[in-house]
Each structure stands twice: as C-alpha cells, then as structure tokens.
Amino acid sequence: MTSSPTRTTPVVDQTVPALRLRGVVKTFGDLRAVDGLDLDLFPGTCLGLLGPNGAGKSTTMRMLTGQAIPDSGEIEVLGFPIPQKSKQARARMGVVPQSENLDEELTVRQNLTVWATLLRVPRRHRVEAVGDAMAAAQLVDRADSKVQTLSGGMKRRLLIARALVHRPALVLLDEPTVGLDPQVRGDIWTLIDRLRSSGVSVLMSTHYIEEAERLCDDVAVVSHGTVIARGTPAELVGIHAGVEALEFFGPPDRLARIEDTVAPLGFATRRTGPSVSVLRAEALPQHVVDDLGEGSRRAANLEDVFVLLTGEKLED
Amino acid sequence: MTDLTRLASGPAEDEPRNLRAVEPTAFAGVFTREITLFRRVWLSTAFGSIVEPTINLLAFGFGLGALVSSVQGIPYIQFIGTGTVATAVLFASVFAGMYDTYIKRTFRKTYDGILATPVDVPELFLAEGAWIAVKAGVFGMAPLLVAMIFGLPPSWGMLAIPFICFLTGLGFGFMGQWFSGIVPSIDSFTYVQSALITPLFVLAGIFFPLQGLPQWVQTSAQLNPLYHCVQLVRNAVFGWEPMNDLGHTLALVVFAAVMAALSIRVLRRKLID
Predict the structure, then answer these.
(1) Nearest CA among A100, A68, A65 for reference residue A175
(2) Which residues lie closer than 8 Å to A218 by C-beta, 6 or more apart?
(3) How far is B256 from chain A (nearest CA, A)?
(4) Quick one: CA torsion of B126, B131, B135, B136, rounded to 10 degrees?
(5) Residue B42 has pLDDT above 90, yes or no
(6) A238-310 has which fold?
(7) Cα Rg of chain B, angstroms
C-alpha cells in the first residue's frame, strides 16, 4: 500500500472486524424491519447484502451510521460500539447513499471540499485529498463544473468520491448502481473493485445478482430482516443451487407440465417471465431430460439460490 | 489511472473528541458548507431580504409619513426606518429556517448525508441557525442605511444593531427550523405565516407605537420577541434605557435558547429513526 508523502497513513487494525452485528432488531410500529441480524465484515473484504426491496438492507445501513437506533442487539463498527461511539466510527467510514444528495449548485471540487471539511480532513491536506478523490472517480476534467451539469453516471461517481475523500477504512454503499444504464454500471463496478483491491472494507447492499457476483468476496442473503445464508457467491451457488439449471421457454401449459414432471422427483423449479428453470439439472436422469423436450443449460447463479431460499424474486 | 490506494489508508487525523458537547470542528464544518453555498446564491438571497423591507420603509415612510409627521417625537421616516430593521431580520431568519430546513430534509436529503459524517443533530442545526443569524445581522442593517439616507443621524449605539439583529435572527431562525419539523407538508407554512408571523410582525411596534392600544395588547407584546427587537433597535439609535434594554436582551436570549431546544428535539425525532 503506498501513500502520499504529506498525508499520514494510519494503519488499519486487521484484527478488529470492520463490522460486527449480533442479534440486531429494529421495528417500525408492527414492522420488524431488521429481525435478529448477525453480520461480520472482515477487514479488506467486500460483503454484499443481497435481498429484495424491504428486506431491511437500508435500515441496516442507517443503523451503522447511528441514523437509526436499534431496539436491541449489539453493533460494532471498526471496533466502536454503536450508537454510543457512532461519531468516532463515522469519522473513519464513507457512506454512499442510495439517493443522490449532492449540492447541485456547487462544483465538483466544491462538493468534495465541503465534504472533506465535514469529514475532518486537516486543512493542509484538503486540496490534495480533493484532488485524489476526483482522480479516483475520473472527474478531474469536470472539477469546476456545477453538479447540475453532470450526467447521472458522473453524479454517482462523485457521490462515491465524496465518501472516499477522508480515506475511510470502511465504505458503505447502498444500492450503488440502482437506476443506472448498464454501461455506467460497469464504470461504477470498476471503481468499487479498485477500492476493494486497495484494502478498504466494503459493505454493499444490492438487489442485482450480477453486482454481488462480480464484486463481493462474501454474500449475505437477507430476507425479512435476517441473514438466511452466507458465503462466497460460488459457495452459495454450489451448496444451494448446484452446478447448472435447465431452462425451458414455451407457453404456460408447457411450463406447468415441466414443473409437474420434475416436482415429484424432488427438483426445484423457478419461473422467470416466459421461462421455467429446473435447478440442479446436472442430477436429472437422462430419460427425464429427454422427456422434457428442448431446453437450454445454463450455469446456476445467485438468483437461483435466492429464489430457492426465500421463494421471493429479487428484481422488480 | 490514479492511485486509489492513496485514498485507502485509514481514519482522519482530527478525531472526534467529545460526544456530548457541541464540537467546534463539526459546527465549523456545517457553517463552512453554508458559506460555500451562500457564495453561489448571495445575490438573490440578499436582494429579497433587503429590497422588501426597503420598499416597506419607503412606502410607509412617505405614504403614511405625509399624514403623520412624527411619532413620540421622532420623525416618522426615522421611526419606521428603525422599526423595519426588525422586519428585515424576521424575514431573513424565519423563512430561511422554515423553507430551507424543510427542503433540505425532505426533498434534497441533505441532512441524511451530513449526519453520516461526524456531525450530530445539535451541531448541525445550531450551526445552520447561527448562519441564518449572521445573515440576519447583516441584512438588518439595510433599512437602517436607507433611513440614514433620509436623514436618520448616525449614532454610536447603531454599532450594537448587528448584534441585536443576530440575537433576534437566532431565535427566529431556530423557530423556523422547529416549524419545519412539525408541519405535515410544505404548504402548511402558509398557515404559520398568516396565523403567527403576520400578527407578530404587525403587533411589534414597527409601524405604530403600541402605547395607544388596549392594555392587553401591550401586555401580550411582551411575549412577542420581535417587539423586544424593535425596542432595542430604537433605543440603540435614540438613546439607551439600561434596565429596559437589559430586559429586552434577556427576552431575546431566552427566546433563542427555547427555540434551539425545540428545533433540535423535533428534528432529531424526524432524522434519527
């Protein structure tokens, strides 16, 4: 890890978990938004919270910054108990919110400078810190453009840069690419991936399977406010969804017939629009495969895992 | 390609120290943000805050001044000029507190962003309130300068007026913040304006002295912070009344403190789940 000659480089304690949650509960009236959540994030890794809207991901993020107070349970962020020492933790973490809340009237540089001040970058390092953050987000040539003139992708990159300006040890990303074009999404992924490779701990909530598969060392599948499965994307797929799926397209009655054929044999299926996938298809006896007719084999993925575990669909 | 690892090396140097007190660093951060924003919009803000009271001053000063030559021994244009200082302060502070705070909280989600940095709710709203008060301190001087053009003689006491305006602006800025946290929607501000701000403004002794009015009006004026502001400004210009002025100052201090407490309380409930 290199560092600038003028800014000091405090070492992140690798033995303290970046995040530690035990039995965290948060209710809103009758709704148990977070219901006994346990979570660990190890330093220098990226953990994905994968779940549909309403699974409690955003509430969890807000509890980590002290913006929501849990009813019960323990939270530690970078070793600091939350909410008691939330402010110390916040000084060391960067938060990328789901909804864009930049100061539109200010330029890129001004936005970052304001945030560097709020995030307590010492005055003598501010210009450099802002420069580094703009470079990281590839916004140097737009430094003096007002935010309202930037494209959606640039704004999102600035939102991420804003969370990096104080060189945090932990970054929280709440649905970092929601609502972006695929092309722009790729740019954001590159940025997050480089962040992770540089040793920052990352917690990312997402309901995009591909995002979790590409960026996360570890995935926690969240449903109704609790973790129902945890592992690397490959482990989760291997354990819960096997090697491959057989996907069939056709009219509803054909899809129903396929479901009726494989269900008695103990095979799970899931529908996606006009198709049905038979999961763990590698274990299907050949004569059953022949009976089912023409289908296409594809690798099992995290979405299969998710549907198997929760019976819910991820993307809306 | 840039070196991202430079960004990734750990915590800030300036540690948050005290969790309970209002930290100067956090306060200064929010205050600096306001100054940066103001440098972008100062012209429109200053225009509204200065021109409107000035029009009031000129319209009443000349319109009514033609009928009433003097009030309590003071030429009417000077009476109204000193009174309008309070109007300028009220407008610059209570509306900024109401609208800006409401918009930043609900539409722009600005506070969600700031509260994810090492800034707590009291620091955030005390700093924003202080900034509103600074603007009120400056804008409050505009009517005075206009009145001076129309013959108000300069006096040493006038140097106290920015501070009187600051103190008054503090209370009304916090009051605006408080309202921003209790109204169900931004449209509800019209009720606040009609039912509360207008009576405060009319019954503060800005346009006419309250002495001629029924006793209950004069008594209730004691509960109107703007009345205390008007009295202090006039005494600063035309001659101090030490005991009374101490009372007026105290009233404004209490008003600001109570409003700050209410504002922080209600906005914390709105922003922290």
Answers:
(1) A100
(2) A45, A46, A47, A48, A230, A231, A232
(3) 25
(4) 0
(5) no
(6) Alpha-Beta Plaits (3.30.70)
(7) 21
- Cβ–Cβ below 8 Å for A120 and B25: yes
Rounded to an integer, what is the distance from CA B137 to the centroid of its chain?
8
| pLDDT per position as a tens digit, B222-255 | 999 999 999 999 999 999 999 999 999 999 999 9
CA-closest candidate to residue B10, choices A134, A118, A17, A201:
A201
Beta pairing, strands A31-41 & A80-82:
unpaired
Are the beta carbons of A262 and A242 closer than 8 angstroms? no
Nearest Cα neighbor of A202 from A220, A211, A215, A214 is: A215
Check whether B2 has a pLDDT greater than 50: no
pLDDT of residue A12: 55
Q: Count other C-beta atoms under 10 Å from residue A15's C-beta.
A: 7
Residue A171's SS3 state is strand
Minimal CA separation from A11 to chain B, in Å = 6
CATH class of A17-92+201-231: alpha beta
Collect all residues with Cβ–Cβ distance below 8 Å to B130 and sequence separation of at least 6: B27, B31, B170
- The whole-chain average pLDDT of chain A stands at 88
SS3 string, A253-284, reads HHHHHHHHHHHHHCCCEEEECCEEEECCHHHC
Q: From CA B173, how far away is CA B260, in angstroms rounded? A: 9
Rounded CA-CA distance A267/A212 in Å is 26
ipTM attached to this prediction? 0.86
Instruction: For tokens 């205390």, name the residue.
Output: B228
- Here the tokens at position B239 are 């001659």
pLDDT of A279 reads: 87
Is the pLDDT assigned to residue B72 strictly greater than 90? Answer: no
Residue B52's pLDDT is: 80
Q: Say yes or no: B45 contacts chain A, CB-CB below 8 A.
A: no
Q: How do the domains of chain A map onto residue ranges?
A: 17-92+201-231, 238-310
Considering CB atoms only, which of A9, A65, A195 is closest to B116?
Answer: A65
Backbone torsion region of residue A54, taken as left when φ is above 0, otherwise alpha when ψ lies between -120 and 50, otherwise beta: left
Contact A25, A36 (CB under 8 A): yes
A51 vs B8, residue with greater confidence: A51
